[in-house]
Amino acid sequence: MAAARYTSQRCLERSSSLLAAAATVTVRSYSSCSTVGSASNLKVALIGAGSEAGKNMALCLKQCSLIDELALHDLGSAVNRVRKDLSRCNTTCMVSDRDDVSLDNTLLNAKIVALIVSGSNLSQEASEIERVVPKILQYCPKAFVALVARSVNSLLPMLFERYKRDGRFENDRLFGVLNYFSTQASSFAAQRLGIDPNSVNVPIVGGGCPKTAVPLFSLTTPAATFSPEELYRLRNAMKRADEKVAAEKCGEGASSSTTTEPYSWPMCAGFAAAKFCVSLCKAMKDEAGVVECAFVRSCLIPGLNYCGAPLRLGPNGIQRHLGLPKVSADECRQLEEAIPLIRRDIKVGEESMELACMTQGRRYQLCSCTTIRHDEVILISLA
């Protein structure tokens, strides 16, 4: 009987010690996963997560196993519901469900910042740049910044000028996302070819709006040959996709610039922007062969300080500018037509940095994609 009591007591002591050890391991494991700003922690900050594109992008990023923490922010209260919703998805990427997450805490130690800029005109979009960029420079100055906006041609130069004002020249870390166009082009090309869309890629060069983004269908991978009629249908599908949705949203005769969503197809835009951010995550982890098309500062085309083209990405941003590939005569013509529009938009962005917060005055048109208001500075008059 005594021996039985002794054995039972030893078993109880052993079980208690094992449970204590397991609890210690569990606490340490959770602590190591949730430590913000550690060397191995990859934190992505998503600004503008309350928009439709932002919600879709957040859902896609939540499923990425490369991301340790996803921080969401927006001016409205809609982002609180997004946080709570995503925090209940059982993936390794952590999302805080608190309602009081400030912009400062969202950006603190972020390695990648996805900035979705919404607004009915360029002035509103510029004001958002002016609100967010100082915080980026304060809390994560070396972060990759992926700009998602309709006015990329003007806003990326504005972003660069705002960095330059603080004495920072991060040419290789600031990106204007073009995946919205490459995703649609790849989808249309796959439908025409009748193959798996996941295996199709159509590069984009030029600018970041429907009139300046040039899809290179001649360089579709896997290699494909399209007839002149097929190319016409593909380009027409790209051109009319946004126009159709804009007409449905705004009503017949209304301007597409009145919508605050950055793109006409927010689900596609969110998916495409998330795809680009995943590529940035891979590059930051030094994976080989990460190539994306983006609108960046470059001297690729004489007379343009910014241009969209293929890039090889690495841990420090742009590893190499891959240059303009050999394109067809028709694609070359499209790019030549886009260059004056891109140059005009770049000039507006560079000259408008000091006027970013002005919202009164006359209305001006930029590349038929966005509008801007200024009191005294006349840029491109609609008159």
Percent of sequence in beta strands: 15-25%
Distance between the termini: 104 Å
E-strand count: 12
Major sheet characteristics: 8 strands, mixed
Regions with pLDDT < 50 over 5+ consecutive residues? Answer: 1-8, 14-39, 250-258, 356-383
Strand order of the largest sheet: 2-1-3-4-5-8-9-10
Protein name: Malate dehydrogenase, mitochondrial
EC number: 1.1.1.37
GO molecular function, one term: L-malate dehydrogenase (NAD+) activity
Family: Belongs to the LDH/MDH superfamily.
Description:
The structure is a single chain. This protein is an alpha/beta fold. It has helices spanning 2-34, 52-62, 78-87, 103-107, 122-139, 152-165, 179-193, 228-250, 266-284, 329-351, and strands at 43-47, 69-73, 112-116, 144-148, 174-177, 204-206, 213-215, 291-297, 306-314, 317-321, 362-366, 370-374. The chain has an eight-stranded mixed sheet, with helices on both faces. The chain has a two-stranded antiparallel ribbon with strand order 6-7. Strand 6 (204-206) and strand 7 form a beta hairpin. The longest helix is centred in the first third of the chain and has 33 residues, at 2-34. The model is unreliable at 1-8, 14-39, 250-258 and 356-383 (pLDDT under 50). Residues 43-176 form the Lactate/malate dehydrogenase N-terminal domain. Its EC number is 1.1.1.37. This is Malate dehydrogenase, mitochondrial. Keywords: NAD, Oxidoreductase, Tricarboxylic acid cycle.
